[in-house]
Every structure is written in C-alpha cells, then in structure tokens.
Structure prediction request, 168 residues.
Amino acid sequence: MAKIGLFYGSTSGDTLKASEMIAAEFEDGVVELHDVRKASAEDLNGYDAFIFGTSTWHWGGLQDEWAVFEEELGAEQIKGKKVALFGLGDQKNYPENFVDGIGLLGKKVKSLGALVVGHWPTEGYDFVASQAVAGEAFLGLALDQDNQSDQTPDRIHKWVTLLKQQLL
Ligand SMILES: Cc1cc2nc3c(=O)[nH]c(=O)nc-3n(C[C@H](O)[C@H](O)[C@H](O)COP(=O)(O)O)c2cc1C
Prediction:
C-alpha cells in the first residue's frame, strides 16, 4: 500500500481541520498526518508521495511554522516525488494575496525536483491576485473557511478523487 505523508501548518486550526478531512477521504492507513510545528526532516523519510497544506498569513506569507520547516525540506526526500498542495486563505480580506502560501510552497518543492500534481480550477473564487495561480489554475486546492466554508467538504472530496489518479 502506498504511503502518503501529509504535512500541514495551521495557526488557528483551519488547515488542521482540512488536513483531517483530506486524510479521511483515503483508505485507512494511507495518509499519515504531521504538524510541521513538531516535525523534523527525518519525518519526511519513507513516503511514496506527499501532500503539503499551509494557510497564508502576513499579507502573502507562509504560515509561521511552515516558514521554519520549509528550510528542512531537502532534495534527497523530495526529488522525483509527487507532491500535492492545498492552502487556506481569505479571498474577501486578502484579495491580492489569496492563498499565496500554495505558490510559495510550490516554488520551493519544484526547486527541489518534485512534480506538483492536483491543480485546481480558479472558477468559483473572487480574488484579485494570487501567487498560487499557474496558467489557468491554482497549483493546488484553495480553501476559504472564512467565506466559503460550506463548499469545503465538496471541494475536498473532488480534489481527493483527482489525487487518487494523479498522486498514487
Ligand atoms: C493577520 C492575518 C493575515 C492574513 N493574511 C492572509 C493572506 O495574505 N492571504 C490569504 O489568503 N489569507 C490570509 N489570512 C487568512 C488566513 O489564512 C485564514 O483565516 C486561514 O483559514 C487560517 O488558517 P489556519 O487556522 O490553518 O492558520 C490572514 C489572516 C490574518 C488574521
């Protein structure tokens, strides 16, 4: 059975909740959750693929603990692996930096040789600019618990359905 490491950073609990919902969509035992606040570089060992989740803070910055853990990511664990990204943000109050964290993590893992899968359409969101947009789509799943929490379960279900084809 393939093993996926899901690493998340969450300041007020939204990304944690989304991480648990994502893990629950897979078969039992496939996804292991790691809070980057407590994770070390060794925790990245032994996975076939990764899911990285971050919220965006400080007008376009990575979640605080991700900003620290990002430095631990090394090509030896990431190179050649598939990585799916998701991010929490607030399109109403931060329309010019909506889910920028997805873009920041995407840049990092690509620079380490990862293949980013699980791109997500931008339809259904109302924002001005985002570092998470690559071409026509977000680089990963964008979630907005502040303004569109009712859509989160459906978005997660559809995204994980896609990941079961693209990530595994
Ligand atoms: C001070 C502050 C700055 C924020 N900056 C951004 C931002 O630049 N872009 C964005 O999309 N969301 C921003 N947010 C919204 C959070 O990312 C959002 O509330 C998210 O759900 C928090 O998730 P977490 O509890 O997992 O950290 C900001 C929120 C606060 C309070």
